[in-house]
Amino acid sequence: MTYPHPIGFSDLLGWDGEDYAEILSLFRQQTTEIHGSIMAAARAVCPSEARRFFEDFFQPLRFGAAFAGHVTGYYEPLLAGTAEADGEFKFPLFAPPPDLDHPWYSRREIEQRNILAGRDLELVYLKSRVDQYFVHIQGSVAVDYPDGRRARFGFAAKNGHPYRSIGHILVERGAIAAKDITADWVKSWLEAHPDEMDDLLWENPSFIFFAPRQTEGAFGAAGEVLTPNRSIAIDPAYIPYGLPVMLEAQGHAPRLYLAQDCGSAIKARSVPIFSAAPGRRRGIARGKSTQRRS
Question: Does pTM surpass 0.85?
Fold first, then answer.
């Protein structure tokens, strides 16, 4: 395994052109558990000294080519939903069961055997099985109810099984070339092949559970409100929540982000950037090669 190695701030592409005051403001708003002396200093420093703060308290680490992966974009979907099931809205998001352990039942077992039925764990009902599945991928959703209320639900737990991309499976089957695949294409394929939908979705054994979120705005797994084009989802086994991360990629200018989220599809070599508020995006950006630095 190749471990990250120290570099200087002068080696960070894009560092000289960053908006240090903006990053400082977002950094010190975090409630993520970060070393107390660092957070105390962040909250005491004036914005004009933001660059010096980061250079004094952080050591850049380069992950290098061994961790090259891809950058994607994700968003908080805005969907219609109901509090009770009916003939139209019948695809629930569930709260974690009290007996959740890792690994728990797989997606196939949960859905085929109706393991969650009758346990009063349903939080909200959605209209589409495709939407239900993609909310599991996104990790959060804003829901508009018929009476005009809007509620938010975010990632709370998962069943402990590894995520497997159904898009990659469709590529392996020859349904589409890897360079052409997008989330919208996968959604269209599922809607056009209802008889094959269950078997394909069950190829991904990972299953996500949710919790209500009271805060306005999309809510990340680290407990922070996500900022478009400044928040990223990471694998916390490699990058702790709350840390600044510099990303660079083909066709993507180097930019500093904060590690504030994690979802079922996040791997060590995939870094999704939170890109929009509810209802403003309808797709996920195609993957791009990248090297990550923090």
Answer: no
